[in-house]
Design goal:
two-stranded antiparallel ribbon, mainly alpha
Length: 160
Amino acid sequence: MPAAAQHRRTRTSRLARRLAVVGTGAAVLALPLLGATSASAATPPLQTATTLGYPNTLDGWIRASLAVMAEHGIPGSYDGIYRNVIRESSGNPYAINLWDSNAAAGTPSKGLLQVIDPTFNAYHVANTSWDPYDPVANITAACNYAAQRYGSIDNVFGAY
């Protein structure tokens, strides 16, 4: 191949590669913007007392949890949840048990209804927080567990 043709091909190849890199770079930069728009539109907000229109209090947490539970067919009443919350944590969403057998095994009970992490994760309710200290997430996961094990949180009258 003559030297002139080889030089022209190299210059053309370099130009094509550069355009491909620039085009790819622009596409990569645009992806987060496009993805964020469509992902946020498809992902519902977390269901908390505040996002559901309830006060950020024990009463609001229970009422918000009951609304989420109704959406998911989880049985339970205000009185059953309240009774168990008062017994388990005295209404403190950051309560943690560091002395019982669960704690000794490395999985302390946490939150309003004193749920251990494996139980919280197994009975987590969609669109609630994955934080076991989140009041609505803790109540709904615990009530989901109680429903599966005892028929309802209303049937729980002691440590579960």
